[in-house]
Amino acid sequence: MIGREHEIAELQRVYNSGESEFVLVYGRRRVGKTFLIREFFKNDFTFYCTGIANGTREEELVNFANEIRRCDESICRQVPKNWIEAFEMLSSIVEKSTMERKVIFLDEVPWMYTQKSDFIKALEHFWNSHMSARKDVVLIVCGSAASWMVKKIVKSKGGLHNRLTLKLKLHQFTLKETKDYLLSLGILWDDKTIAECYMALGGIPYYIKLMDRSLSLAQNIDRLFFKESAILDNEFDNLYGSLFRDSRDYIKIAEILSKKKNGYTRDEIIRLGHFNNGGGISEKIEDLVQCDFVRKYKAIGDVQSTYQLCDFFTLFYMQFIKKGHTYDTDTWMHLSGKPVTNTWKGLAFERLCLSHLIQIKQVLGISGISTNSYSYYSADAQVDLVIERGDKVINICEMKYCDGPFSITSEYALKLRKKTDAVKSSIRRRFTYFIVMITADGIRRNEYSSSLVQKEIRLEDLFR
Fold first, then answer.
1. Lowest mean pLDDT segment, chosen from 24-28, 141-145, 184-188, 227-231
2. What residue segments make up the domains of the chain, in order of their start?
3. In a 10 Å sphere around its CB, with 0-12 CB exposed, 13-18 middle and 19+ buried, how is residue 454 labelled?
4. Distance (Å, rounded) from C-alpha 316 to C-alpha 59?
């Protein structure tokens, strides 16, 4: 298994605890939640059931009953009338099991929950009345709809309040984990090619697994997105549809945020989308944050938070698929090197850097120092990453993606000085200011790089 060392250690801990454990696993679609649980437990479950996408209450109960019958037909003679009955049957399965640790895996739980459903109440009763008092149960609930999992279970004010014993949120792979996974698939790309793959698809294991080792990255992207019957042709609608029951407003918010690289405030999103101010828009924006599709931050001096679209797949879709770029053959091959593609690479590289802040701090040697990271935007200057450090140092990070070493010209040197001065005037506290250049192939040495840049970070450093 690639990566997931922390998650594996936590699962091992609860499995060996000698107590009953209630585990929540969540994260966006395709990130590898089900794979992690199945691999760790070797599919050795006392009971396993996965919800049906867009299923009715009756269909979900029939599905649940069928899984009960696979364990023991005598326990389920007929389909339960409600979820209380369904979980009573599951209690009987646990009672009759001779397994040392009874592992119950309920996958895609948000799909099991339907309007006016008693599912949550039944789950509460099942855990509080039957399982929590035992010493041998590991109950795992899993789902892609991260916002639902947080609202209904993590922040439950009912019977599930403070009942979780472990919460695991799976994130996409890092660049290093993506490289390791590609190597396990026999794909020997260089770091820059892997980074461009990441900028299009993110570190999503399912997407990476679709790569054909016999093809170049450009050929693979054509195959996944632009060819007739492309594998990921309907992935965008399926992705948002699996996360949100009514995905239209969520997609609209993503479309708005895709039009401005540094994002918009809540009020700006409402204005641009013509949303009702009281229509639950704040909750929907926060849902996108919970699903790791949107980054929330406050720039220096801001009163409101700014929301920035950070999901690589969504950004790629909005830029190239939704806009309908069409060519006779080999669409992505034709786009390579064009201004629209180069602009996209520059913006995507900035987001790639922001998603690897841990690695950036490691290179700077400040992993053990308290930091506050944010963006700075004003009429005079824009800085995508400012790292305010506990040792009274400010790192002003510039991110540039190009072929070959990046050259700091006299004009660009002036911009760097203006950015530093703008941040200084906004912070108005005594700090030492260091400029950090993050590039794909390093910077070309000249008088400006020597006098201005205190630290250089290359793409290869982000593969730590």
1. 227-231
2. 5-169, 172-352, 356-463
3. middle
4. 36
